Amino acid sequence: MKSTRQISMIAVMTAACVATNYLLIGFVNIKFMDLIVFVSGLTFGAFVGSSVGTLTWLVYGTINPYGFSLPILLATCLGETIFGLAGGLLGRLGFLDDAGLGRSRILTEGFKFAALGFLLTFMYDFFTNVVSAYSLGLPLMPVIVAGIPFALLHEVSNAGFFFVGVVPLLNLIRKLPDSGLRREMKSI
Amino acid sequence: MKGKTVFLWSTVLLLCTTIVGGYLTLYYYSQAQSYMSSYESLSREMVGISMRVKMKIDYGNGTVKWFNSTRFPMNATLLTASKIDLAVKYSVTNLGAYVTSINGVEGDSHHYWAWSYFDRGSGTWVLGPVGSDSWVLHDGDSVAWTYTVF
């Protein structure tokens, strides 16, 4: 039963990621995906989070107007799991118990999540840049330097999304009727 | 415990700002390197189509100013080159251009602006034999404008 709920949760969250990715296709490196993957990991565990990240990239990276590259697709699939794994780890460490409880702490928690979002995105960008450089046979430094404006945009926008989005999303999931989701959350 | 948490999150925040700082440093350093390389490349190209002339301005009161680094177009006349480096006023006469003012210092009934060139053969300054608009400069020339008493 637990795995059925996990699979349905993965499907719903992946659908949300894919839909928002195509919705924001015109905005390079500005996506809600990382936020959703992180919250999936935080609330439903590292397995769900990393699965959502990987599956989203399998769809979005394959059917993408900017083109398809297998090494980069593998890198993004693997890199996106950082968000899910980090979310899952923080959930296990009890971060979920503290986060988003009271309105008075919403700002403090928001800042914490913004900083986490920034650092996780930095790791993701660095990892994908390294893989892109090696797969295209280019020297690493110019690739990283050329990617700085895009990386900064990605990291700063994600910090903003994590600041604004994680706590409301967590509160929203907590308010869901007791149809299994809350039970699922408690059991993780 | 609370102090430890504050310390932890302050470190995380500092790490974020360090990353942003590092990014900006790297980006602007590479931009600067790129512009430097473009400038050097352009300078190399300019060597073939421009010349460097040393120009001295002697205001006659002990103030002497040198302009040594300006590149002028090939075959520029002294007047053309002077107009690039200096604020020059002049009138055109039958004998050629007559410079009346340089950098705001005007000639009057007792003073005028005379030009001379450095003769490398004799090693002396020689008074200009023609109007400054007729004297064609060459790479490495040295010329002077002197505020002279009549």
SSE inventory with pairings:
The complex is a heterodimer of chains A (188) and B (150).
Chain A lengths: L1 H22 L9 H12 L1 H15 L9 H23 L2 H4 L7 H31 L3 H7 L1 H28 L5 H7 L1
Chain B lengths: L1 H48 E3 L1 E5 L5 E4 L3 E3 L4 H8 L2 E6 L2 E7 L2 E2 L4 E9 L4 E4 L14 E8 L1
Parallel strand pairs in B: 2-10
Antiparallel strand pairs in B: 1-4, 2-3, 5-6, 6-7, 8-9, 8-10
Word description of this protein:
The complex is a heterodimer of chains A (188) and B (150). Chain A is globular and about 50 Å long. Chain A has 188 residues and is mostly helical. Chain A has helices spanning 2-23, 33-44, 46-60, 70-92, 95-98, 106-136, 140-146, 148-175, 181-187. Chain A has a single domain (4-184), classed as Arp2/3 complex 21 kDa subunit ARPC3 (Orthogonal Bundle), CATH 1.10.1760. Chain A has nine helices and no strands. Chain B has 150 residues and is of the alpha+beta class. In chain B, 37% of the residues lie in helices and 34% in strands. Chain B contains two helices and ten strands. Chain B has a five-stranded mixed sheet, with helices on one face. In chain B, a hairpin with a 5-residue loop joins strand 2 (54-58) and strand 3. The longest helix of chain B has 48 residues, at 2-49. The model of chain B has no long low-confidence stretch (mean pLDDT 88). At the A-B interface, helix 6 and helix 8 of A face helix 1 of B.
Low-confidence stretches of chain B: none
Assign the structural class of chain B, choosing from mainly alpha, mainly beta, alpha/beta, alpha+beta, or little secondary structure.
alpha+beta
Structural class by SSE content of chain A: mainly alpha
Mean pLDDT of chain B: 88
Strand proportion of chain B, as a percent range, falls in 25-35%
What is the fold named in CATH at topology level of chain A?
Answer: Arp2/3 complex 21 kDa subunit ARPC3
The pair of chains with the biggest contact is: A-B, 16 and 11 residues
Kindly report the average pLDDT value of chain A. Answer: 86
Which consecutive residue ranges of chain A, at least 5 long each, have pLDDT under 50? 178-183
Q: What's the helix count of chain A? A: 9
> Could you tell me the strand content of chain A as a percent range?
under 5%
